[in-house]
Specification:
39% of the residues lie in helices and 6% in strands.
Length: 67
């Protein structure tokens, strides 16, 4: 998850969490984790795998806004 609206509006700050970090936060709160699309559908396995590969390589699949 990456929040870029603030940076797009000119702020130097935003927030970013990897899927693993979000899962860790949810686990700490005793909540289940389930990835969904923006319309609450099931995420294809290929997409989940692509995110895992990108995170392992230290990259983001989301575009970053630079000033």
């Amino acid at each position: 998850m990456e929040e870029t609206i603030s940076r797009m509006a000119g702020s130097e700050f935003g927030s970013a969490k990897t899927a693993r970090e979000i899962a860790e936060v949810a686990a700490g709160a005793g909540r289940p984790v389930r990835q969904r699309t923006t319309t609450y559908g099931e995420v294809p396995a290929e997409r989940i795998a692509a995110v895992a590969r990108a995170e392992a390589e230290g990259r983001s699949l989301l575009p970053l806004v630079t000033g």
